[in-house]
Specification:
By secondary structure, the protein is mainly alpha-helical. It has helices at residues 15-18, 42-70, 77-90, 92-98, 101-137, 141-147, 159-178, 183-213, 236-255, 261-284, 296-318; strands at residues 217-219, 225-226, 233-234. Helix 7 (159-178) runs antiparallel to helix 8 (183-213), helix 8 (183-213) packs across helix 10 and helix 10 runs antiparallel to helix 11 (296-318). The chain crosses the membrane at residues 81-111, 117-139, 160-181, 238-257, 264-286, 298-319.
């Protein structure tokens, strides 16, 4: 810029008086930040920095609010859906291996309903049932497929299977949420909820382990030897595995504080009676003439309903005097 201006050589006859009224110039250094962009207004830079700082401050606050919402006691629908969504995202690799896409959606509804009714303990109980049941279904899958007794879609559960396995538990959850019977019956609905999943897990494990390892399978109504996978067939290996599964899940419910020890015993007994009834129904009625509607999912609903109702009746009629 300086080289483009021409300065006159003579400004005044008396140079000493030309600039006498002006203060002596001082030197100042102008600093430009490295990589600065002259076209970007300083105000805009400051505003962007403030927005970034505000976002950084906002994220921890939002996370804290989400954590407090999940910890809500008693649970709310908002906390149930949020907690369920986080768990489903984190656990999606496991869930996808055991659920079809539509089954995934049905399981999300079940998880949200369970959390809303019984909190994290109910959700963990269902998660334990799902993990053990899925693992049992996949035991010796190639062998089961070769024999034609494997579950469809390599054991991945669709919506019918999810609903058929949880219908009684969902009813108990809705009764608890609605407050039917007041506080006096709240624990009964939770007992029925636990018993329904103990029943279903016992049935699943006994069936899948029986098909994989059962040396001899008998038709429950006649004790006639029949091929593995026959409706209404039982084996010693499968029956023993089913009992262990119900004991395990009842123990988990006890550790989570859902039931006490006598109620855990009730759940195990009720599950075995219900499974015996389910085997009889399968042998005599399932998909027989006049009962084509009675498919596997419908039998599952009857099975878990029997387990749930039996547990509640046993609690009220037999153990009421000494259960706490």
């Amino acid at each position: 810029m300086a080289s483009s201006l021409s300065i006159p050589t003579t400004l005044s006859l008396n140079p000493s008086l030309s600039f006498s009224n002006f203060p002596k110039p001082t030197s100042k250094t102008i600093f430009f930040p490295p990589n600065s962009n002259p076209k970007t207004p300083v105000l805009k830079k400051k505003l962007a920095s403030q927005i970034q700082a505000s976002s950084a401050d906002f994220a921890p606050g939002l996370l804290q609010q989400a954590i407090e919402l999940v910890k809500s006691s008693p649970p709310t629908w908002q906390s149930a859906v949020l907690a369920n969504a986080v768990i489903f995202i984190l656990g999606s690799p496991i869930l996808v291996s055991g659920l079809s896409p539509s089954g995934f959606a049905a399981a999300f509804f079940l998880g949200s309903l369970t959390w809303r009714a019984f909190g994290y303990s109910g959700f963990l109980l269902v998660a334990t049932y799902f993990v053990i049941g899925t693992a049992a279904t996949k035991v010796k899958m190639d062998q089961k497929e070769a024999q034609g007794v494997a579950e469809k879609m390599k054991g991945r559960r669709g919506p019918g299977s999810v609903i058929g396995s949880s219908a009684a538990g969902c009813v108990c959850a809705l009764l608890s949420i609605s407050g039917i019977g007041g506080g006096a019956l709240t624990r009964l609905w939770e007992l029925g909820f636990v018993a329904s999943f103990c029943t279903k897990l016992s049935d699943t494990v006994s069936s899948e382990i029986g098909k994989a390892y059962g040396r001899t399978t008998y038709l429950v109504t006649t004790f006639k030897i029949v091929p593995r996978g026959t409706e209404g067939a039982v084996s010693l290996e499968g029956t023993f595995a089913g009992i262990l599964a119900s004991v395990l899940l009842a123990s988990v419910a006890y550790v989570l504080g859902q039931i006490n020890i006598p109620q855990a015993i009730i759940c195990v007994i009720a599950s075995q009676i219900a499974n015996l009834g389910e085997s009889i129904i399968g042998a005599v009625f399932q998909e027989k003439e006049g009962f084509q509607w009675l498919n596997n999912d419908a039998v599952n609903v009857l099975n878990i309903s029997m387990g749930s109702i039996l547990a509640i009746l046993m609690q009220q009629l037999i153990f009421q005097n000494w259960l706490t």
